[in-house]
């Protein structure tokens, strides 16, 4: 199980626990599947960010189109690893924050808490 905590640039915030096939999503409202956290901004994709539990760390998928946006995995010391459009990255104990930046504004900051669990293969062996 993982805990996802978010804060948007408009001041909205929340927390949810995910397990199994659950996912947390951030994106533009009005699509077939409403995001967990929605915004009404035409520059934001419908599934701009998706976070799922996986091993060894949660997976962050960037569905956000370019549109001047950047998505970063942020380490505890503040360094950033950028995620390209249409790709994913694993969160780690050292990189457990995600930021979606559009222009000069951080639209959403997401912190993810989780226990170290080993790889999927290691977990299946037990």
Please tell me about this protein's structure.
The chain is built from one helix and eleven strands. It is mainly beta and 126 residues long. A hairpin with a 6-residue loop joins strand 5 and strand 6. The relative contact order is 0.22. The mean pLDDT is 91.
Summarize this, please?
By secondary structure, this protein is mainly beta. It is built from 1 helix and 11 strands; from the N terminus they run βββββββββββα. The strands form 2 sheets. Strands 2-1-11-10-7-8 form a 6-stranded antiparallel sheet, with no helix packed on it. The protein has a 5-stranded mixed sheet with strand order 4-3-5-6-9, with no helix packed on it.
Total strand segments: 11
**What integer value in Å does the Rg equal?**
14 Å
Span between termini: 17 Å
**Average pLDDT:** 91
For the largest sheet, list the strands in their spatial order: 2-1-11-10-7-8
SSE string: EEEEEEEEEEEH
Strand percentage, roughly?
A: over 45%
